[in-house]
Design goal:
homodimer, alpha/beta, Aspartate Aminotransferase, domain 1, Aspartate Aminotransferase, domain 2, seven-stranded mixed beta sheet, 43% helix
Amino acid sequence: MKYGFSQRVRYLKSSAVRDILKVVNNGNVISFAGGLPDEGLFPVDAVSNAYQKAIQSNRKALQYGETEGVYHLRQQLADRMKQQKKIIRQPEDILITSGSQQAIDLFSRIMFNPGDVVLTENPTYLAALQVFSSYETNVIPVKSDQDGMLENDLEDKIRRLKPKCIYVVPTYSNPGGKVWSLERRKALLQLAHKYHVVVLEDDPYGDIQFEQDDTPPTLASMDQNKYVLYTSTFSKTVVPAMRIGWIVGPHQIIRLMTQAKQAADLHTNAISQYALVHLIQDFDLDQHIQVIRDTYYQRMLVMKRLLDQVNIDGMSYIEPKGGMFMWINMPETINTTVLLQTAVDHGVAFVPGAPFYVSDPKESTMRLNFTNATPDLIEEGMNRLVSVMKKAQMQSNEKAN
Amino acid sequence: MKYGFSQRVRYLKSSAVRDILKVVNNGNVISFAGGLPDEGLFPVDAVSNAYQKAIQSNRKALQYGETEGVYHLRQQLADRMKQQKKIIRQPEDILITSGSQQAIDLFSRIMFNPGDVVLTENPTYLAALQVFSSYETNVIPVKSDQDGMLENDLEDKIRRLKPKCIYVVPTYSNPGGKVWSLERRKALLQLAHKYHVVVLEDDPYGDIQFEQDDTPPTLASMDQNKYVLYTSTFSKTVVPAMRIGWIVGPHQIIRLMTQAKQAADLHTNAISQYALVHLIQDFDLDQHIQVIRDTYYQRMLVMKRLLDQVNIDGMSYIEPKGGMFMWINMPETINTTVLLQTAVDHGVAFVPGAPFYVSDPKESTMRLNFTNATPDLIEEGMNRLVSVMKKAQMQSNEKAN
């Protein structure tokens, strides 16, 4: 039978990343695709104890709960954001969500009418683009370099296009692995204030910094809770399967998002919320995060060392200062989507860069994840990848000659 | 600052039920409002053990998972639906959701354009109405009696209004506590087939039956997986805080809902999904459900006994055969929203019926929940309520004279 669906299904598509993951999971392929944290670092016993306490200590934790989220957890988040990110907010301005993905979705639900303009970086987080598209928005990329969006282009586009929102991942971005400079952050905020544009600051990776204290402050910490919505998650620092994220911002926006969430799923899994309350109380989460940072930093260095042995004209990358990804520009003659098939045949996977672009995709880019494989596997996988890269370059040169 | 929100925020509002719950939770009020299962019946140790196993036995359970849901759980659900509801479906036709509320939301997301018509009972489940409204649909009530929708009115409205969907809670409905007869179920399905209309069968209460085997079969069991989407949940039979529901139906629809879910929240809390896998394996869930049935049945009888002592002309109710609610028609001179304030002042709460209506609300109706209070509290609360009812009736008579 033929069903009549809504207009918005035209904008739904399965994520290329997830489709690749499905293939890669069955087999002998070393994967630098995906964006998975390392399972070996999961604090299994601490998580286990936290769930035990959550379930055994209070039957209310097992009952229907408030849409806003468990108040105690929101207090802990307010404290942590204040201490670690200099973001001063009240628990009442926080909404607990089913991962930060849901924060992006609920925000979109209350903000966007079809045709509304969203400004983003190019490339940017794929699944955010999918959400914005599903609300039939008009996503427009702003020119940017390694330090963030270019101020002139941003102001020009704000004036001409009157965007509803600017979406950014300013710290250890996905996919680019970049960090916005302090100057660009300030420039963005000044423009947001000047033109009254809401900024959605997506910060899932901010905790994964490789060097101490040289990360510029979050946008939210420089805002008087007027223009910036800040969202983050425990998926990278505790475990993804909990699906606990949060968003904090102007109360009027958070309140509407809470009403939208009530219709969407009533409230976020409360057992997991209470488990987090206990985990934050009983477990040295900051020490654990330090272990994650050190481990991922070492892995990034292994990947970088092997990449540096490649001698391909026109290939470049910038060493990430945190996060989970390395972004590589191959010579323009190489199409990484074609390269991926060869790579998988040789037992290694990555994500081609093209799907992360709003428009004008650079077909010669690729994203490598360095957090999910052990150093030995990174070494083996990079050897495979480097040989595939070299072969592709040789073939490309032969064609040119 | 003034923010520019989407059109759809006009349709968002906080649920009256939940707002009342907030007030009632602080204080000495015996509440028959809400729709909470009894915390005393929560299988705490079984849930605790199941989470332990889920967390300790497999690190993959803590990682990002598939949007469709944990395959093993979908197999178990296919088995259970086949055994207990005669619904024959493949695991691939099931999507695990964050409660059945999310199933209604994702279904709406892929089905409805603004202005699309949804046919419903009147009154019906409040939070479904909120979802449908938030997608700017045109919700139209179909005339019904205690046995279900009236066939003539349903056919007339299908022909004239060309609905995208018919939404029903045919078994122990919320708020009416009614069960559709077999004849009305068959009539609905025949019309759905004849006019190619999708039916969303919401069945959160189907397991809570008070007498053996006299419940008519589910709509889904009589459909060849063409027109009926069936959704249910573990919130009433295990614990609500897990937020695990599911929806099953034609693969084409489930696949699109899965893509919508990927954008909405990537996937449902996987720790809780694996915990359910273990719970279903290790725990006698059916025996537990029998305890829930018996307990709620006894409580309903206590409520009924006290209600039968009221001698108010023009008051009526029908004894529910399952579920969690009793629906009462007070004399038409009594406005239950006004009555609620007096009742709360006297230490007892309920939900006025009006908000459950799509249109033409009967202001003299009310919904009583009998599952969340112990028999003693039901007795005490009903004594309070009955005295408030009698006083209201006397005042109403005095005015009339």
